[in-house]
Write a structure and sequence with these properties.
By secondary structure, this protein is an alpha+beta fold. It is built from two helices and nine strands; from the N terminus they run βαββββαββββ. The longest helix is centred in the middle third of the chain and has 13 residues.
Length: about 130
C-alpha cells in the first residue's frame, strides 16, 4: 500500500491552485502548508484525507514527469476529477473512460498538471 508520494514543482503557487481544485472532487484536501522558513529552505504542501497527507508537492528542482493515480470511489467521481482538473488549467491526457487493456473494469481519466506530470483518477469497480 502506498503511504505517500511527492515531487518538486516549478511554481508552488500555480500547483497549489491546480491541486486544490482538481483533487476536491476526490475528497483530497490541503492538510499541511510547510514554509521554507520551517525547513532548510524548501516549501512543501501535503494533501490527503482525515488529517493524513499522502500526496506532497514542494519547491526544488523537478526531476522529470511523474505519474500519480488517485483511487476514486466510483466512475462519476473520475468524471468530476477530470472536469475539475481541466477547469483548473490542466491539459487533457486521456478523457474518462474504460481502459480494458489494464482490466475490464478499469475506468480512468488523465490530466497533465502545470509541470506536465500525469495525474490520474481511477475506479476499479464495475459500473
Amino acid at each position: 500500500m502506498l503511504d505517500h508520494v511527492g515531487f518538486s514543482v516549478a511554481d508552488l503557487k500555480a500547483a497549489r491552485r491546480f491541486y486544490e481544485k482538481a483533487l476536491a472532487p476526490l475528497g483530497i484536501m490541503l492538510i499541511y502548508d510547510i514554509s521554507a522558513e520551517q525547513t532548510d529552505g524548501e516549501a512543501y504542501l501535503g494533501f490527503g484525507e482525515d488529517q493524513k497527507p499522502y500526496f506532497w508537492i514542494g519547491t526544488g528542482k523537478s526531476k522529470g514527469r511523474l505519474h500519480v493515480a488517485f483511487l476514486a470511489k466510483d466512475r462519476e467521481t473520475v468524471d468530476r476529477f477530470y472536469e475539475a482538473a481541466i477547469k483548473a488549467g490542466g491539459k487533457d491526457n486521456g478523457a474518462p473512460g474504460l481502459r480494458p487493456h489494464y482490466h475490464k473494469h478499469y475506468y480512468g481519466a488523465f490530466a497533465l498538471d502545470p509541470d506536465g506530470n500525469n495525474i490520474e483518477a481511477v475506479c476499479h469497480s464495475p459500473a
